[in-house]
Amino acid sequence: MARVREKELVETFVGLADTLVADYDVVDLLHTLVRRCSLILEAADAGILVPTADGPLEVIASTSERSRLIGLLQLDAGEGPCVDAYETGQIVSVDNIADTYARWPKFATLATSLDYQAMHAIPMKLRDQTIGSLNLFSDRVGPIHPEDAAAAKALADIATIGILHERALREADTAREQLQHALNSRIVIEQAKGIIAYSDQVDMDEAFRRLRSRARASGQLLSVVAREVVEAAGRR
């Protein structure tokens, strides 16, 4: 089992490295990363939060609507492991969410209602600057295995590299501009997901899979295909 996981990690790092040498869609890259992270580390879900140009955190990638919702709910409540990891720049690991009611009452209530029982939040850091957090959610109580924690940290570093790949992103202001562009793309993608979910009578997760399949089949950026879906709906 350990050798299989090691092989999957190597394949993931190689695949992501190949993506970074050419033009890439950062939202699609981060979505691939959280999916791989969830599968390899056997997490129920995974997600990434980054700040907008104005400062507030937003969900930029998630493996499901459930994990996207818990991310948004933490941001709305202003509390939770994801928020703490970003604000402190330190890893925040919660073995049992039921034990966190005193520390994060709103988060604990919301997470429990979504059936999450444990989580692990890793800050995404560039030198001394935290630019986001990679978050793993579990449906089981218990600590993350040390080897999984190390792998998650490495994947968080890849996510950071993906966002700040261009040399021009060395300065924080430029980095924020790129993050804002990615977040703007995500808004269009969410609109397109809603349109597809309504028109095809499917849930939001299936709508995203269909949108992503269209982008890959056509060789276009995910954000471009999403904009086409939104514009086509507007002409009806």
Automatic annotation (TrEMBL):
Superkingdom to which the source organism belongs: Bacteria
Pfam families tied to this protein: ANTAR, GAF
PROSITE patterns: ANTAR
Keywords: Kinase, Transcription, Transcription regulation, Transferase
Keyword Cell inner membrane: no
Domain ANTAR intervals: 169-230
Organism, scientific name: Herbiconiux daphne
SUPFAM superfamilies, alphabetized: CheY-like, GAF domain-like
Protein name per its UniProtKB record: GAF and ANTAR domain-containing protein
